[in-house]
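User: Can you fold this complex?
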Amino acid sequence: MTHLFYTLTLGLYAAATATYLACLFRTSATLTIWANRLLASGCIAHILSTVHLANQQKHLPLTNMQESLSFFSLMIVAFFLFFERKYKVTTLGSFITPVALLMLIISSALHGELRDLPPVLQSNWFWFHALLAFVSYAAFAVACGVAVIYLIQRHFLKTKHLGSLFQRLPSLETLDEISYRSLSIGFPLLTVAIISGAIWSEKAVGSYWYWDPKQTWSLITWLIYAALLHGRLTVGWRGKHAAILSIIGFIVLLITFLGMKHSISW
Amino acid sequence: MNIIVVGLSHKTATVEIREKVAFSPNQIEKPLRELIALEDIVEGIIVSTCNRVEIYATTRDIAGGISRIKRFLADHHQMSLDLLEQYLYSYHSEAAIRHVFRVASSLDSMVVGEPQILGQIKTSYGYAAEYKSSGIILNRFLHKAFSVAKRVRTETKIASSAVSVAFAAVELAKKILGDLSDKTVMLIGAGEMCELAAKHFINSGARGVMVTNRTFEKAERLAEEFKGEAVPFEEFLQHLHHADIVLSSTGAPHLIIGPKDAEDVVKRRRFKPMFFIDIAVPRDIDPKVDDVENAFLFTVDDLQEIVQANLAQRNLEAEKAEEIIEMEIGQFFKWLSSLDVTPTIVALRNKFDEIRRGELEKTISNWKNLPPEAEKRLDLLTLAIMNKLLHNPTQTLKKAGQGGRIDLYVDAMRQLFDLQPDGDVDGELELEE
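Assistant: Here's the predicted assembly.
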């Protein structure tokens, strides 16, 4: 069952990605509606697959890279669908869905063996920590996508090249609003995720913080987003440099997520 | 019956000539009545806008009809026919249908894709319908033209992009600032273009207007017109941060907003983006303002370039529109030809005969032991009844074909007996508003 839903999800995400990409080159109401329908159906299949797997394993599927990537991808899709509904930003999907699809493809290529849950993960603090972390990651992924589009639109405006792509991408104001919203959702979640991670670490190995690479990089990620949000709240910081910092933040986040292995071994 | 078009437009005549030939809408009744009173002219419509004057009519005699309408135009406007004729064009049959479809779809307009022409033709048609100068053919023809125009507008992007500088500025502002309903415009100086752009911004929902001018009275007058606020010119930089859109067109010989000013203003606005439009020649706003982050400066030349690109895009879309029109011409022409007498009589006979044979067959197949002789007699009997029944209508139609308003008879006949021409035209002839 899990496998069936999983394959269905992959197929629907691939179709949705192709349709969203087509939306960059053609303005068509039908195309917009179908892109959204395909992605929403994919999202439902993805949820079913995740719930089914969780039910089978009796725990949330967040314990290895394969499961985590799939969950990350699901959260990104869910966030995008929310923003698409609210701001009618179809062409944001042209940037977000390929990322979600890629994550799911990598996830499906990874080897996931069934195994017993290591004792170190059998803590509610861990589940709390992991769940919040991925929701915040997804929010930052959307912010990063929006920042990329912002830089593209800004480039078009400054060079006065206002072609059809410029017309199809969202306005600077909309991009700024989505960016600010996703940052202000992502940042508190990341904060709580890091704190709960520290508590879990104390329960598991007896120390809240011991500067392993994963923790250090998490802190760097947090500092970048803290600076970004602080600038926004105090002096209204936005525009090119804020967009670049948002992209850097997400790159650091990916390094933390993909590159840094926890020294708490399991 | 043939459709003919006689007229002149911005493509063939100067504005002086067009003015002379124009018809005033208040006094359209008399010329419409004169038009259909002309020999061989059956129905007629007069379309008169500032860019074209055209007459659409139906006639049995193409050459005669065209020359009579030309003479009518010359007489009505007291011009010499020789002079007028060099500006006039005329079309008949398929070419006439094509011309009217193209005009209604705004493919023949000065600015291709402009939306007014369709409304103007609808108004002209309204007069013709009111004074009964249009009949079965022109009614259908015009309704068809309206639905073709609608199809062109929805299926191509011919009217979707801004083709005036003022409108391009509004579109651009929406791309930068999003919804304009909480945005404020500041007008610096008072050029005609500036006022026009300001009007466009207000029509698009902009919330507030600030006006500044070296002569404060002028600023006050404009502010009153826009229900805005006048700002003394000496202080305008102190108020600039309230503006999201700055429209500048002073006659100043030097720059009035520099990059330093823009930087300060953007900072005071907490880096909310600002849209500067410099319409003045020589320029009012330092080009370096565009280098300031979150400030976007466009000059009138930049906007002009956008307009040019949009126009080029429209011409591309116009090609798609021509294809749609070619398809529709074929369909309409089929309906028009079906209004001839002979095909109608043939269709009527075929219909009757089909019914007769069907009923005959039913009777015979249910009748056991019917002798072949009786079968033959039944056939002859029903045939005789059918011929007698059809005799009068056929004769009347043939007689109508030699004069009078045959299309009325033919159309009534086709509707009464449900005789469809090849390809159902009726289904899509609803009037779109």
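The CA atoms of residues 397 and 409 of chain B lie 7 Å apart. The longest helix of chain B spans residues 300-338.
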